[in-house]
Amino acid sequence: MDDLRKKAKDLLESQAVNVIIGYGEGTSGAVRAIFPRKAEETDKLIYDDRCTQNLAVYLMKHEIKHMEKKGIVATIPAMRSILQVASEYQLKEDELVILGIGPDGKLVDIPGFKAMEDYLATQDFGIQEDDKAILRKIDAMSMEERWSFWKDELSPCFKCYACRAACPMCYCTRCFVEVNTPQWIPISANEIGNFEWHLLRAMHLAGRCINCGECGRACPLEIPIHLLTYKMTEDVQTDFGVTAGLKADMPSVLSTYKLEDKETFIR
Amino acid sequence: MAEFEPRIVAFVCNWCTYAGADLTGTSRIKYATNVRIIRFPCTGRIDFMLLLKAFGNGADGVMISGCHPNDCHYTSGNFHARRRWMIFRRLLDFAGIDHRRIIFSWVSAAEGAKWAQVVNTAVEEFRQLGPYDNYHAASKEPLEREVING
Q1: pTM of the full structure
Q2: Cβ of residue B98 closer than 8 Å to a chain A Cβ
Q3: Is residue A207 part of a domain?
């Protein structure tokens, strides 16, 4: 943690960056994101087990995006998000200073995207065991059971869009759900509208989601919506052999194609 | 009791299947009348949301059809569409939505007879599956209470 503070302080003092995106102490024992812009504020930076949020999301927010040089405390999911977003031409390498955090909580030196790619190649990032168990459980259900499972799970959703706000990939300035001619997604919370919203969100993340699970954690009603995108990531991997967020120059899965893509259902 | 007549929406591309369906008509080939055809510039334009909207508005089955691979008027629209459907079908399955109710086909402008046959088989299959009550019930009831947007 001292390494982290010291490095952040140096960066701000030397004006190498204008802001550091990091974790700080929140209220009632919670952790929140903080944005020190002066060297003396870096003492507030912390890193411990509670720091699970994917901070890459703030890079895409309007207020931060225009701050030119930014430093970011990046865990492995955040690094993958950064690479994925960079591959979509939304981030420039020279605008970023990465304060990488390894799985052991130690500072990792990541001088650029190339180093990040090399570092990620040595890491293992499977999804959590309990999520894997639910995924397999859903796979084993019949279609009707799956329908009622998701109907029950999604029914409390009132579309606060916290899942969207927490996702580094959901950076469109104008989202589908705000389009109202025609009204694609009903504004009020209703069964089919909830299905439509969550399927749409998952589809828009196809081949882009890096499985950080931030959407599920952000959900105030604890709906396991991250399972939809987890499943999608598995499918993209099986069908096209692509894993998102490993390279900064990767073509997007759904805007490219291969002549030999294999399907079994078209007559 | 009268036999159940499924309501089917067909999203077809302008250059192949729409022309193919036209050929079915001009060749005087008789086929099931359950299908409502909607013409699109390209299969690549057929957004997955349109499928969900069709079901939400009372369709019992959806058909999607366009140019054979390598025949796309815009070179690659159908290849992009194919990738999207591969993913979308699996997602629907995972969410418990009946993907047997979506039938995909490649029908060229010369395959009038194939279109008739694809539609007839589809109607038969949808008839077996029956009305999509699950989805319709979920989409109807709350919307009737909805005041926003009239």
Answers
A1: 0.88
A2: yes
A3: yes
